[in-house]
Structures are given as structure tokens and as C-alpha cells.
Amino acid sequence: MATSAAGPVAIIGSGLIGQSWAMLFASGGFKVKLYDIEQQKITNSLENIRKEIKLLEQSGSLKGALSAHQQLSLISGCRDIQEAVEGAMHIQECVPEDLKLKKEIFARLDGLVGDDVVLSSSTSCLLPSRLFTGLAHVQQCIVAHPVNPPYYVPLVELVPHPKTAPATVDRTHALMQKIGQAPIRVLKEIEGFALNRLQYAIISEAWRLVQCARVVAGMLSYCDRYGEGMKHVLRTFGPVPEFSGATAERVHQAMCAKVPADPEHLAARRQWRDECLRRLIKLKHQVPPQ
């Protein structure tokens, strides 16, 4: 049986990001409690994690020094949030990108934890000042924004609240490095952080090219989920596309011609992407350092 390096770690939300975080922390030897409100979601997530870790081991891409069996033994599910965070040294929130929901989660966590735990959000663009202001443990709060999928793309943006303690940033930075991630520090919060400001600038210009009938790429669901957030960030750049209407439909149809927008095809596309990333990781390990 594997033993925890330190911890445990609590993951709040068992979706794809939460599953990936759980795998990463287990790869570093940390006990992980994966929390969600529905038992079926937890059951499905644990099964997805089991299959993924086994596949990673078979392909020689499993992170960390522990075997697949040892890593899986460190991950458990939990429907009681108080039980999930009990004794945790790090809590990683991974619920949907909804400000009201995230604030409710952190308000509840604020009343459950002591002064020795880091409260971290996986938000992609909600400012820490909007998420954490007013919390008693605000000095322990930070955004650790991963790239999707976190297990295969190690970049993590660390974005502090204005009142986040420097020790919280240092501690989170060290933890991310320990589990094989590549953290960067955003010294002061800014709309979209660093990664999405760069990404949205590219998406925005690609959108203009589509409107001018020069290129075709993209999909509707991305616009539905992130369109408002992109517009909010891009307003700090200059004139902003609407990410809707005829152009959105053209982009969607072009994407559907390549990958139909149904769960089966999207899941297959995700598996294809992850397999490519696994091969890339394996190839990088074979390249001697310069």
C-alpha cells in the first residue's frame, strides 16, 4: 500500500479537470479525496481515473515513482464536503466556471478549514478578488489555473488575491513542482490572467478572419461557455467580436464536418488528443537534455 507524501489533498468537483488533478496529486504520492454531490458522478469519475491510469502505465507514460495500483489506492471518493476536507493541506476547487457557485463553495470551505490549508481555485478567468474577498482565510486563497488537460499539459498559472500571503504562493508553487507541473507566477491579478489573454487574442483574430471568409475553424459550445468571458477580457484590448450569430454558425458547421458535436464523437476526439499528448510526453523523455 502506498503512503501519502503529505496531505491529504481534497478535490472539489469530479469532472474532467478534477479527475486530472486527482491523478496528478496521486502521482506525487498524496492521498486524494475526490468530492462531488452525487455518488454516481463520483463512481463514474473513479472508474475513468482507473482506466486512464492503467492506460498510462501500459503506454509507459505514467507520472511519478509509484505504480498504477499504488496511485489508485491513494484516490477515494466522498459525498460529504466536511469529510473530504478534513485534515487536508491543500484543497483544489474544480466546479463549473460559475462565479456564484464558486463563491458559495469557498464560503462553505472558509467555515470548515483552519489556518494551515491552501484554498485553491482552478478558475480560468474569474479574478481572485471576485472569488475570495471577504473570506476569513483570504490569505490562504489562490488561483491555480491549469491547462486542459492538466495531466498532459503541465503549465499552471498561480494568481494571488491582493491579500494572499506570499507563503501561500510559495507553498503552492512548490507543491505544483512536486507533482510534475510547471507553475508560473502572475504577480498581480489581471483579466484573463496571462494564458487566456494570449489565447483570446489569437481566437479573436481568427474570428475576424472567419468573418472575412479567409479561414474556417472553431465550435459553438466553446462560444457558449466562454464567449462572455472572452468578451470581458478582450474589452481591455480594443474592439471585440460578438462570438455569436452567422459567424458562430459557420464555425460550428465547419467543426462538425470534421468532428460531429455529439458525446460519442467528442469523447473519441478527446481520446485521440490525449493519446497524441502521451506520445509527445514519451518522445520528450527520449530526447537528451541540452
Descriptive overview:
- The structure is a single chain.
- With 290 residues, this protein is of the alpha/beta class.
- It folds into two domains: 9-185, NAD(P)-binding Rossmann-like Domain (Rossmann fold); 195-286, N-(1-d-carboxylethyl)-l-norvaline Dehydrogenase, domain 2 (Orthogonal Bundle), CATH 1.10.1040.
- It is 50% helix and 12% strand.
- It has eleven helices and eight strands.
- It has helices at 16-27, 39-59, 68-73, 81-85, 99-112, 128-132, 166-178, 195-211, 220-234, 245-258, 263-286, and strands at 9-12, 32-35, 75-78, 90-93, 118-121, 141-146, 155-160, 182-185.
- The chain has an eight-stranded mixed beta sheet with strand order 3-2-1-4-5-6-7-8, sandwiched between helices.
- Strand 6 and strand 7 (155-160) form a beta hairpin.
- Helix 1 crosses helix 2.
- The longest helix is centred in the C-terminal third of the chain and has 24 residues, at 263-286.
- The protein starts with 8 loop residues before the first strand and ends with a helix.
Labels describing this entry:
6PGD_dom2; Rossmann fold; N-(1-d-carboxylethyl)-l-norvaline Dehydrogenase, domain 2; 11 helices; NAD(P)-bd_dom_sf; L-gulonate 3-dehydrogenase activity; globular; 8-stranded mixed sheet; 3-OHacyl-CoA_DH_NAD-bd; 290 residues
Could you give a quick summary of the protein structure above?
The protein has helices spanning 16-27, 39-59, 68-73, 81-85, 99-112, 128-132, 166-178, 195-211, 220-234, 245-258, 263-286, and strands spanning 9-12, 32-35, 75-78, 90-93, 118-121, 141-146, 155-160, 182-185.
